[in-house]
Amino acid sequence: MSLLGNKVALVTGAGTGIGRASALAFAAAGARVVVSDIDSGGGKATVEAILDAGGEASFQQADVSDSAQVQALVAYAVQTYGGLHCAHNNAGVLGASAKLVDVEEADFARVIAINLTAVFSCMKHEIPAMLASGGGAIVNTASYSGLVAVPFAAAYVASKHGVVGLTKAAAVEYGRKGVRVNAVCPGTTRTQMNIERAESSPVMAKAMTDVTPMRRLAEPTEIADSVVWLCSDAASFVNGHALPVDGGAVAQ
Ligand code: NAD
User: Fold this and answer.
1) How many structural domains does the chain have?
2) Residues lining ligand 1, CB < 6 A?
3) Is residue 27 part of a domain?
4) Is 156 a catalytic residue?
5) 20, 116, 189, 250: which to mutate for ligand 1, most atoms within 8 A of CB?
6) What is the pLDDT of residues 121-152, one digit of tens each?
7) pLDDT in tens, 154-164
8) Which of 60, 95, 97, 120 could cysteine-pair with 111, CB 3.0–4.6 Å?
9) Contact, 111 vs 93, CB < 8 A?
10) Which of 76, 144, 156, 174 is catalytic?
11) Relative orientation angle of helices 154-174 and 105-112, to the nearest 10 degrees
């Protein structure tokens, strides 16, 4: 039996980057995967990649900041595959780079809605589906910015600290009922946004790698492997944990 054989997994923000790597890793571990994103082109490309690799997946579009769409997404997973066992609540945005006093209120609200309130909505609908499926495991994508602050990203830092708190709140309520809830805290990862930043100047590229003792970016697959492990029975007593996968950045 593969690591997640017969399990049903849901990944948000799976149209590219960390979420796409996670969806591929869930499928490689034997799960049937509901790939979701606001961007249908990216999401469908992720499904194609899973099918090409011999896995099982389907796409359901959802804007995670709309709770009705999140409810419909979870219902789709249950109706399509008969239950829900694993969820990676991963969709997120960075927001504008600015000093706190220059942050527009609308941008602050947008970042909180997508990065934090949406994680609440996802868990609100996923947990009952998991309880009805005999238990499950949730991983929320926080960030190393959920553990320490970085400058010029107040809304992002606040949202990701909130994700860590929300993760702990859910873990202490539902662990005894068979749903484990953890967070993954990636360091700077080689996704499209960061590739463009790194290519913008050698100074920027050096600054991005200098923040970690390992002097390189994370690969999306390195985050994905941690997510799959946290959802597997190999992590059966890990609950309420915020796991840095950051090459040691927050250990400094
Ligand atoms: P990305 O921008 O490459 O991908 C994010 C995905 O989320 C996109 O496919 C996008 O369409 C989707 N998305 C955005 N808003 C959405 C919404 N409202 N509803 C549904 N989907 C939506 O980002 P990434 O680098 O892969 O990051 C994924 C997660 O990891 C985010 O939560 C991010 O904050 C977090 N993170 C990333 C890094 C990094 O360095 N890349 C570091 C720490 C944490």
Assistant:
1) 1
2) 12-13, 15-19, 37-39, 42, 63-65, 90-93, 114, 141, 143, 186, 188-189, 191-194
3) yes
4) yes
5) 189
6) 999 999 999 999 999 999 999 999 999 999 99
7) 999 999 999 99
8) 95
9) yes
10) 156
11) 30
Average confidence (pLDDT) over 198-213: 90
The boundaries of the domain holding residue 42 are 8-188+219-251
203: in domain: no
Position 161 scores a pLDDT of: 98
Altogether, the residues listed in the chain come to a count of 252
97-129 confidence digits (pLDDT tens): 999 999 999 999 999 999 999 999 999 999 999
* Burial class (CB within 10 angstroms; exposed 0-12, middle 13-18, buried 19+) of 165: middle
Burial class (CB in 10 A: 0-12, 13-18, 19+), 237: exposed
Tell me whether residue 194 is in a domain.
no
Choose which residue among 20, 22, 35, 37 to substitute to test ligand 1 binding: the one with the highest number of ligand atoms within 8 A of its C-beta. 37
Of 193, 172, 163, 190, the C-alpha closest to 88 is 163
Nearest to 153 by CA among 117, 197, 102: 102
In a domain, 200, yes or no: no
Give the C-alpha separation, 137 to 127, whole Å.
Answer: 9
